[in-house]
Amino acid sequence: MVSRTRSVSSRSKSARSGSATSTTPRVGTTYGVHGEVLSKPPQGPKHTSHRAPKKTRKHKHLVLKWVLGIFAALIAAGIGLFAYMYITTEIPQPEKFALAEKTTVYYNDGTTPIGSYAEQNREIISCADLPDYVGNAIVASEDRSFYTNKGIDPIGIARAFYNNLTTSELFAQLVQIANETYSPAVENFRSTYNIKMNQAHFDALTSFVFNCGVGTLSSDYGFRRALLNAVDVSGFSGSATGTVNVDDVDLGAAPVYSSASTASQQVTTLDIGATVTVTSVSSTRTSTKQEVWYQVTTSGGQVGWMPAGYIQLSGSWTRDLAWADSTVLANNFLQWNKAGGVQPGLVYRRLAECNIFFFGDYEKAMKANGYWGINYYGFNFPDECAQYDRRQ
After folding, report:
1. Which of 185, 190, 244, 375 has a beta carbon 3.0–4.6 Å from 214's, enabling a disulfide?
2. CA 211 → CA 42, 115, 160, 337, distances in Å?
3. Contact 345, 357 (CB under 8 A)
4. Spatial CA neighbour of 290 closest among 196, 225, 198, 354
């Protein structure tokens, strides 16, 4: 056994030295007498690389390129569609879009209206005929810095973003409530009595009924009668009979003045139900004053002037809130100031509604603008809240 082992060893040496192509014995391998391999050592697990095959990586890159390409194509298509719509969309002019008007039927004298019929109660007028405060009201509500900014107001944009971010949900709920309950009440009042009113009138009345209740427009209150007394007297001539149906809350009667001014001397007072003959009309309808006065002769023969809001004219007249008399109507609005006593907040809210109603002045109806609580237009306050009459 020893000699065999030696011969194997010597044979292995001669094999290594005699031939360049001989195989070097492996450690742990057992060879036979003739050099044959009898057994090999056990082999460990083969090393496996953790790298992904190149083909799989290329496939992922291809998918990513397709996704990015489709996304870029969608963006380009959106931009192209917007540009196309912007170029091809025609914005209709108001005079081409709103064409329907009401039809008014007159008696055979050609001036006294029988009634009006329309699907939409619209009367088309020229923009030149609109008072300045209408345009100012629109600018004030849309962009207060319209006349001073260069087309874009960064502060206004930031303010709108903040307001929308913090109060949008509450505002949406208020708008929904107003649209479902209070605006329809105002519209019903307008259509029932065929009253002409502008957006400022409508907004002010909506705010009023939102605070005081929709029943105020269906109940026989003084401010409601003063609203219905507002008629277009631009073509007044001759004389007309009138009935006093609104009084001054502080006097308990309707005053008659020596001239068309509350600063003039009082001639007499008339109780509700008294009749007068109206012989002349004086109106002041400017951006700072909205007054309509009737020259009257009482049943006792006294002659004087009365604010039109006190008197209901007999005959057929077109009700138009542009002819509402602020002397009487504002005073009646301002009487709605109590909640367990006179409340300053309610006085100032009524004052803000008067600013909008008579002058379309939304700016002076906003707390943030510094006019809150200031009687800028000199409305006649009732005695009960005269202590809050602050004038600039």
Report:
1. 185
2. 97, 33, 25, 10
3. no
4. 354
* Residue type for position 115: G
CA gyration radius, the chain: 46
d(Cα 109, Cα 218) in Å, to the nearest integer? 34
> How far is Cα 320 from Cα 231, in angstroms, rounded to an integer?
5
Rounded CA-CA distance 334/378 in Å is 12
Residue 273 to residues 156, 293, 311, 374, Cα–Cα distance (Å): 53, 19, 10, 35
- pTM of the predicted model as reported, rounded to 2 decimal places: 0.57
How confident is the model over 326-342, as pLDDT tens digits?
999 999 999 999 888 89
Residue 1 has pLDDT above 90, yes or no: no
The rounded distance, in Å, linking the Cα atoms of 174 and 200 is 18
| Confidence check: pLDDT of 170 > 60 | no
> What would the pLDDT profile of 263-311 be if each residue is shown by its tens digit?
999 999 999 999 999 999 999 988 888 999 999 999 999 999 999 999 9
The three-point CA angle 207-116-191 to 5° equals: 20
Report d(CA 248, CA 29) in Å as an integer. 128
Q: How far is CA 208 from CA 30, 204, 243, 284, in A?
A: 112, 6, 27, 25
SS3 content of the chain, % helix, strand, coil (to 5): 45, 15, 40
